[in-house]
Amino acid sequence: MSLPPEKATELKQIIHDHLIKMDIHGKIRDVLAETVRGDGQHGQRSLSEEDFIHALQRRGIVEDVMKDLHFTNDVSHTEADSVNKSATRFVDKNITQLKTTNISPLRRYLYLQVLGGKAFLEHLQEPEPLPGQVCSTFTLHLHFRNQRFRSKPVPCACEPDLQEGFLLEVHRDGPGDASKMADATTMLSICDPVHMVLIKTDTSGDTTLISSYFLDWRRVLGAPTGKTSVSAELLGVGSECKVAVGVLNLKLELYPPLTENLSPDVVTTQQSLERQKTAEKERLFLVYAKQWWQEFLEIRPSHQSKLVKIFAQDENGVNRPVCSYVRVLRAGRLLESPRQAARFVSLLAQERAPVVGGGVRQEQWCSMMAFLCRNKGDCEDHATLLCSLLLGFGLDAYVCVGTKAKNVPYTWVMTCGTDGSITFWESFTAHRYLHRPIDPDAPPMVPQPKPTHPYRTLGCVFNNKRFLANCQPSDAVELCVFDFTDGSRWKAMSEEAVRSVCAPGSTSSLPPTPPLCSPSVAPNEASNQLELEMRYLLAEHRKDLGLATVWDDHLSYLLSAALSAYELERCTGVLCGNEEFQDAVRRAVPDGHTFKGFPIHFLHRNARRAFTTCLRSAFCEEIVCCRGDHVRLAVRVRVFAYPEAACAVWIMFACKYRSVL
Fold it and tell me: What sequence ranges are listed for the domain CEP76/DRC7 peptidase-like (predicted)?
């Protein structure tokens, strides 16, 4: 196969740079010297080229070169990767089959190597895992300028063997500049950090956020050799945000190397100026927020008890304006509609921030990257992500802060239609509720609409640009009028003040917004695997009861239509295809036989956990333990993959048997 001249030149350059990086010349010199010494001692004839090649092969030099020379895409690639060919790294090809990608010799890259971890003292007593043993693992996630990467999981240990290399493209921002190579001055002005998130996955598949770290990579610009090593001390999250959890050894290198390095003092000065500028903006916003809050309290004394949330703590214990947690997030072709976006968010598991000991609920708002990597979070994380996606779909969306039943603090999302309609979106379930306000001045005999939503009071609403506090006489949701132009009902913050600290790039302390990753689950393979496991568990359960198991594969196949209809209903709110399913079942069940079916929905793919949960239902147990004449059993599993690691798992158990009176 012939290559075009420019591709051949590019390939030669890549191979040449890789051989230099491996110090191939030094290895060849060592082998040559050793071979010459060995032959001289034995008085053999002079070396030929063929003898030397054999010596290289015996030492494994050629094999090492061929094995390592693989540029591959990370398994977790983003929607933007098809446009920006930047998600590139070296990967052990034995892990999985990965795609190859092109590296442009005309672009600048930051090669970030993770050379292992140390001092993860929580795992000091962790025993060495045996070969094939299932154990808890660490996975490192990275985000840099719209590029996302994920390491292969490694066993948890005091010194975890995190050995990875990531090639990050440092592209320019200006119009028409994306294809040009960034020089030292341009890179110095790029204040976007490398966001590193460390996730622990236990043996049951449950994930825990260990650390969220922001690496300022620009110190490499002042390194004399173009390379620098960094010991990154990772701190805990939430209530442990001041406690070190471990250290990662990193090495940074620019490719191709800079022709002229900057002075370390120049880099330090730039970083210091950015910190000063950020601190001044944050100080001015705090002064404004205090004045605005005082004015709000003067309107009505009862406002002191309203849930008006201006600042919130992130996973690192940093207080940030709540508007900075919302971004305009476009999902490309990963999500097709606002309702599908709501379904995706609802599939991310619910978990409150862990707290040591009892007491009041620990509130922790996560950065979007940490939330997506952990794949679970509290109502605030779900609401801000859903609001960001709805804004990306062009809706006028806001996060609502208030309470639900029993006066429990809660957040949800609302959208304002062009016709004045107000719709509430529940981020945990993807349910939508049309708001119909009650008229308190209407005569007693006039029927009033009954609220269908679970929300009780509303303190404030916000998105990425606006923050408005509810200053109506009553903060009951059913009495609220959502006319944001009416200053007597809603007190708005200055949009300019919000923009000064919340707009992308306004301050260097704001975490960058990550793109969504395409699904990491192959739905057909996952469905088949989980269905086989469920069949095995069901058959074993019946064997323990002394019952035989006879499968009806045709009936199992027919259940797919029902599961597909259930998922479609969750996405669109419309149930369709049920008539065809019912007709097919009637044809498959002979006269005089009874059919029973039990569908159930999960957010995980752990077969044993799912089967145990199913048996808690008396109706499901009745199907699984069915006794009678001519009993035939069926089970069908459908896994629907969504962005990130989110998936909807539908399982349906069914049986048919001859009715005996």
Answer: 363-493
- Are 255 and 108 in contact by the 8 Å Cβ rule? The answer is yes
* Lookup result for tokens 């976006």: 341
Rounded mean pLDDT of 444-467? 88
pLDDT higher for 200 or 100?
Answer: 200
The rounded distance, in Å, linking the Cα atoms of 382 and 389 is 11
- CA 272 from centre of chain: 31
Phi-psi region of 231 (alpha: psi -120 to 50; beta: other; left: phi over 0): beta
Question: Percent of the chain scored above 70 by pLDDT?
Answer: 85
Query: 137 vs 142, 155, 204, 454, CA distance in Å?
Result: 17, 4, 11, 39
Binned at pLDDT 50, 70 and 90, residue 261 comes out as confident
| Among 189, 240, 237, 274, CA closest to 510 | 274
Average pLDDT, stretch 604-608?
A: 92
- In this prediction, residue 90 carries a pLDDT of 36
Q: Which amino acid is at 483?
A: D
**Total Cβ atoms within 10 A of residue 522:** 12
Mean pLDDT, rounded, for 257-268: 89
Structure tokens of 81?
Answer: 């990767």
pTM, to two decimals: 0.82
Angle at CA of residue 139, ends 119 and 382, nearest 5°: 115
Range of 18-22, 189-193, 349-353 with top mean pLDDT: 189-193
pLDDT, tens digit (0-9, with 9 covering 90-100), for 481-510: 999 999 999 999 999 999 999 988 888 888
Tell me how far the alpha carbon of residue 37 is from its chain's centroid.
57
Token representation of residue 563? 């599961």
The answer to whether the CB of 154 falls within 8 A of the CB of 160 is: yes
Q: Which stretch of DSSP H or E encloses residue 24?
A: helix 24-41
Q: Which residues contact 525 (CB under 8 A, 6 or more apart)?
A: none
Beta strand pairing status for 88-90 and 72-73? antiparallel
Token look-up 């950015």 returns 274
Q: Alpha carbon of 513 to those of 137, 322, 326, 335: distances in Å?
A: 26, 15, 9, 17
Parallel/antiparallel/unpaired status of strands 376-377 and 349-350: parallel
Contact 518, 334 (CB under 8 A): yes
Long-range pairs for 76-79 at CB < 8 Å and ≥24 separation?
A: 76/148, 76/149, 76/150, 76/517, 76/518, 76/520, 77/148, 77/517, 77/518, 78/146, 78/147, 78/148, 78/515, 78/516, 78/517, 78/518, 79/331, 79/332, 79/333, 79/334, 79/515, 79/516, 79/517, 79/518
Return d(Cα 563, Cα 559) in angstroms, integer: 7
Q: 602, 572 in Cβ contact below 8 A?
A: no
Q: Is 26 exposed, middle or buried (0-12, 13-18, 19+ CB in 10 A)?
A: exposed
Tokens of 100: 């190859």
Tokens encoding 640: 């629907």
